[in-house]
């Protein structure tokens, strides 16, 4: 079923919206022809790829994972309690937009303090109204903070400052309702990427969007998870990619291209020597130096040959 307005409900650093066309033309033929039963995304993040692919292709079931418990909570609330979430966000938006800049700033930091002060591990047996408010606070902070980021400190506290937007859209009920419908065939999991193994077989398509390997020290972005994702994690992911390949699953992975900074850096060629590695152009969106924002290459790695047949639907 096609859901017209389905798209990410959060702004997300490293979101793949600008590369959707590149991914779509490289999808396996079996996905394009509706012959793949299961879609798995072990690092869902903002969900740009998930919302596109699940909206345009037929899967019996989808499984999305993330280690960010706040993100997992937000997806779960959007799927299960979207009308209650919309009601809370409507009240929040109305109250916020009536304020002047100074009062908005005070409002923002009050919500941020409440959000950080009420942080607790997700326990699904306690899931209910308190989590709806928490998901609403996350969406509010995401829509009104500086650059629309989600960033946490070493203690896991949200630490992005106030953003001075004149008329931010805090509530988009059409998108939230569409996303809720699309999530009906989807299991939402809190966990490490390797936890997805139990759902992967030869009739599965898996898209990996791990935290990107920094191109240099200045491009390192503080993670949306307090634990980070370093080179050893990239190596562990490559080993997992090989394991799923041996099962016959069709796999796609995206990452940064170290050769943007160092032509002699063969990190990913060494990790994925037997797979197809393609470079596509993307725009660097996050950099403290505006002059270093611009066109760069990113990598798309697949374990199958891409035929580029059919239209790009995303």
Describe this structure in words.
37% of the residues are buried. Mean pLDDT is 88; it is low at 218-224 and 286-292. The chain folds into two domains: 17-67 and 191-302, Vaccinia Virus protein VP39 (Rossmann fold, 3-Layer(aba) Sandwich), CATH 3.40.50.150; 73-150, no CATH class. It has 314 residues and is of the alpha/beta class. The protein is built from ten helices and seven strands. The protein has a seven-stranded mixed beta sheet with strand order 3-2-1-4-5-7-6, with helices on both faces. Belongs to the N(4)/N(6)-methyltransferase family. Keywords: Methyltransferase, S-adenosyl-L-methionine, Transferase. This is site-specific DNA-methyltransferase (adenine-specific). It holds the Pfam family MethyltransfD12. One of its GO terms (biological process) is methylation.
């Amino acid at each position: 079923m096609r859901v017209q307005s389905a798209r990410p409900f959060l702004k997300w650093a490293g979101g793949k919206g600008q590369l959707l066309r590149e991914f779509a033309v490289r999808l396996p033929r079996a996905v394009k022809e509706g012959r793949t039963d299961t879609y798995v995304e072990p690092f869902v993040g903002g969900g740009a790829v998930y919302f596109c692919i699940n909206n345009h292709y037929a899967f019996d079931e989808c499984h999305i994972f993330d280690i960010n418990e706040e993100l997992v909570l937000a997806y779960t609330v959007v799927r299960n309690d979207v009308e209650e979430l919309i009601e809370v966000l409507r009240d929040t938006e109305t109250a916020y937009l009536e304020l002047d800049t100074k009062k908005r700033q005070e409002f923002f930091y009050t919500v941020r303090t409440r959000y950080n002060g009420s942080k607790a591990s997700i326990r699904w047996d306690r899931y209910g109204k308190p989590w709806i408010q928490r998901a609403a606070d996350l969406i509010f902070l995401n829509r009104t903070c500086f650059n629309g980021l989600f960033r946490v400190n070493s203690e896991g506290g949200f630490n992005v400052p106030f953003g001075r937007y004149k008329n931010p859209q805090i509530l988009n009920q059409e998108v939230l309702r569409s996303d809720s419908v699309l999530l009906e065939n989807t299991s939402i999991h809190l966990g490490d990427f390797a936890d997805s193994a139990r759902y992967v077989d030869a009739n599965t398509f898996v898209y990996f969007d791990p935290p990107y390997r920094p191109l240099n020290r200045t491009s390192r972005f503080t993670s949306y998870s307090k634990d980070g994702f370093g080179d050893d994690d990239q190596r562990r992911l490559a080993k997992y990619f090989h394991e799923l390949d041996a099962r016959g699953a069709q796999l796609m992975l995206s990452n940064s291209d170290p050769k943007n900074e160092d032509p002699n850096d063969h990190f990913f060629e060494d990790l994925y020597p037997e797979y197809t590695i393609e470079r596509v152009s993307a725009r660097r969106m996050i950099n403290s130096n505006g002059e270093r924002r611009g066109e760069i290459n990113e990598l798309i790695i697949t374990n199958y040959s891409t035929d580029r047949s059919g239209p790009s639907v995303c």
